[in-house]
Task: inverse folding
């Protein structure tokens, strides 16, 4: 008789029958294990949540009053017939891969991840397993990221040029993870001026700062109108908005992995994008998968069909999992 799989794919999300829990479910469930606080993975309506201690403060801010418990990275928890632990994903502060072991068989759900150490998030840690469920947001050979220090210098140079021209630099970056990562990276390069923030960015930044993450000083735009010496970091949806126009003469840019595609750059206009992502690029995806030692791989949210075919060609038992996770979107109006 065939043994029940460690995880099954259901209309509510990834389900562990042995432990009676779901991982990052998109429909309300009794028990949800959450990889990180982005809204496509941490949703409201679940009866009980389990995440890393580092992820919980932002989750509580975003979801309100929830019944939630935290684990430290690497700590094991027996849930029914399943042994569970959380391991750094390197995606954003507090983000985790979730390891699930049942009867000696190990599956790992990666959530979202990146391999480059960004100086802020807990660095990605490979976890050996039999089956690995991987994102593939940027699962095409076209996607190769430059080192973070190179991108930070590009942004700093753009900022300095705008300052000389009397324009305020407005940088669109997602509010949890990327915005704070760029602040820290720019601080490491030496800030050419002060950083001001949209209110939504400032709230999340202050939560992470209070947790002990090393972030430079920032001030919300609402307290003092910025001048041309400032870099303003705002959600991508604020670019081109009435909020941005009230600042005065501005130069806008969008920080996204999608800026690697010429079509996306063309739609956003010349000189308005920096290629940086909190998701793994093509080499990172392939390296992460190899380091798990897994023979069976499931691809989800991204270029799933192309990536599955590539993995199968490399000799993996490869499949596709249909989920409602989004990864990094091309549409700057979509929040994460």
Result:
């Amino acid at each position: 008789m065939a043994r029940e799989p460690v995880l099954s794919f259901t209309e509510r999300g990834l389900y562990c029958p042995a432990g009676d829990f779901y991982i990052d479910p998109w429909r309300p469930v009794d028990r949800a294990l959450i990889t990180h606080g982005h809204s496509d993975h941490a949703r409201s309506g679940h009866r009980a949540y389990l995440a890393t201690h580092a992820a919980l403060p932002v989750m509580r801010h975003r979801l309100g009053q929830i019944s939630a418990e935290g684990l430290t990275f690497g700590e094991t928890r027996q849930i029914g017939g399943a042994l569970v632990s959380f391991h750094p994903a390197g995606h954003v502060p507090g983000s985790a891969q979730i390891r699930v072991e049942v009867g000696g068989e190990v599956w790992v759900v990666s959530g979202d991840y990146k391999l480059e150490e960004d100086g802020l998030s807990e660095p990605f840690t490979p976890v050996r397993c039999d089956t690995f469920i991987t994102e593939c947001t940027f699962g095409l050979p076209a996607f190769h990221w430059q080192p973070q220090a190179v991108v930070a210098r590009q942004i700093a140079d753009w900022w300095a040029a705008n300052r000389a021209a009397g324009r305020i630099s407005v940088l669109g970056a997602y509010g949890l993870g990327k915005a704070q990562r760029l602040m820290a990276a720019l601080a490491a390069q030496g800030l050419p001026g002060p950083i001001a923030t949209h209110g939504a960015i400032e709230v999340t930044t202050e939560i992470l700062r209070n947790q002990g993450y090393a972030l430079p000083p920032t001030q919300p735009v609402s307290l003092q109108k910025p001048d041309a010496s400032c870099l303003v970091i705002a959600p991508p949806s604020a670019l081109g908005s009435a909020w941005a126009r009230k600042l005065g003469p501005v130069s806008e840019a969008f920080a996204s992995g999608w800026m690697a595609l010429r079509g996306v750059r063309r739609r956003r206009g010349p000189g308005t994008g920096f290629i940086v992502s909190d998701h793994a690029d093509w080499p990172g995806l392939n390296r992460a998968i190899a380091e798990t030692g897994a023979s069976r791989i499931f691809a989800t949210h991204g270029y799933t069909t192309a990536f599955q075919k590539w993995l199968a060609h490399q000799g993996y038992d490869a499949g596709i999992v249909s989920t409602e996770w989004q990864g990094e979107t091309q549409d700057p109006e979509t929040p994460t």
